[in-house]
Amino acid sequence: MKEKIISKASDMFLKLGFKSITMDDIAGEMCISKKTIYKYFCNKEILIEESTATIHKEVHQIIDNIVAKNYNAIEENFEIRKMFKEMFKASDTSPIYQLKKHYPEIYEKVMSREIKECNTTFERNIRKGIDEGLYRSDLNIEYYVRFYYHLIFSNKENISSEKESQKIELEILEYHTRAMATPAGIIELEKQLLNYTI
Q: What is the pLDDT of residues 153-166, one digit of tens each?
């Protein structure tokens, strides 16, 4: 039952917001009593913490699955972008923005988990792109990882509209890729942009 509650809560939090969803809403949606939820979670904050941990695991599992498909480095980044777009398409307000605003302590925990995972993914992608001749070999990888991370997360933290955030993230991805790309990388980037629908 605990896993079912986390799954339903995660879904509702992402679609309707961490702040607006109550324990009553979750209980009603699941056709269980609120008492059943409190049996597993003593308050909403604990449920949010466990839900964000579950979402984090799911997101990084999907990213690992995308990486395993062995796309080229640029296509891989576009596939990851599509996954995020799909995952958060029902949200009006950016989940990260909501967490930062309403549950700053949980937000800090989420971000400390994210920084390590994201930096590993970004670095791996840059090294792959260099090996494929799509990114320049003279890049300072550590700086580019840092630039990309800060651009992505400052956008997520400061833009409340998920739709607006998604548009900006596509621009960030293009900006990041153009800054690193070789002539072959630019050709691949243009191809991906042509096939990407907002």
A: 888 778 878 888 88
